[in-house]
Amino acid sequence: MTVYNRQTEGKLNDILTILGATKTTFFPFWEKTGQLVTGIGNTNLIPAETGGAAEDLEHDFAPHELTPGSGLHVYQFSPTGDHHLAGTDNAAFSFVAAAFSVGAWIRPRSIVSNAILAKYDSAGNAEEWRFWIDAAGLLDLELHDASASTTEIGVSSAAIVLNQMQFVVATYDGTPATPDVHLYVDGVDLNPTGATTEAGAFVDMEDTATPLTVGCGGVTATPTTEFDGCMAMPFICGKQLTAAEVVALRDIMRPLVGIS
């Protein structure tokens, strides 16, 4: 069931205009049932958990309204119940020699190895990319060459802040030989040179059969590096957002998450 305030429609249009028309998928979380997450763009997500959860899915992992009257919601992820949003393998989420950006609003309760969005199945040797908080609490975008098991990783210069709502974005220019990766927190570029660290002889990402996951890496049967905390309005788009576009997205979204 989708319930949303049509007064937010103009802001959603503004967001989608900035994200562009290439491989864009945006999840406003306008459902309140916790049964299906409708994506604007290419696919939907299915809320999922395991037997470790305390209650049935609709109660234990149900979304909560972001701000009164907005009609948009936030999910509270808990690794104890393996809470995550399970997507599909879709060509719109693979970026072989192609630019892309990924982002979300997060309020993390843990900042030690927590995936935000990923297409990354290390157990199946089918990794493509992951946007996550690494073991040091830093924001990373990892590009992975599955055949060679090599990586290019961009890392933020400062750690994510615990228990605060913040807008996080990663951008990549689509040039595997000399990748340009930027990591933003609340509109501030924390990797302004775009530098990455290469491990092995990285050639490029590959289009694998790995599904998109929100709130974890791996696949829905065996989630890994699980997110712990709140998340709202995740998105993916097939272009490298500029610094000005990231700031514009932040400013449009701020009132929707209750930040003036």
Tally of DSSP helical segments: 3
Average per-residue pLDDT, rounded, comes to 91
Per CATH, which architecture? Sandwich
> Unreliable runs, pLDDT <50, ≥5 residues?
52-56
Strand content: 35-45%
Distance between the termini: 29 Å
State Rg.
17 Å
Domain module tally? 1
**Under the CATH scheme, which class?**
Mainly Beta
Broad shape: globular
H/E order of the elements? HEEHEEEEEEEEEEEEEEEEH
Largest sheet: 8 strands, antiparallel
Q: Kindly state the number of beta strands.
A: 18
What class, by secondary structure content? mainly beta
Keywords:
single chain, globular
How would you explain this protein's 3D organization?
With 260 residues, this protein is mainly beta. It has a single domain (6-257), classed as Sandwich (Jelly Rolls), CATH 2.60.120.200. It is 10% helix and 35% strand. The strands form 3 sheets. Strands 1, 3, 4, 6, 11, 12, 13 and 18 form an 8-stranded antiparallel beta sheet that branches. Strands 2-5-15-7-8-9-10-14 form an 8-stranded antiparallel beta sheet, with no helix packed on it. A two-stranded antiparallel ribbon has the order 16-17. Helix 1 packs antiparallel against helix 3. The model is unreliable at 52-56 (pLDDT under 50).
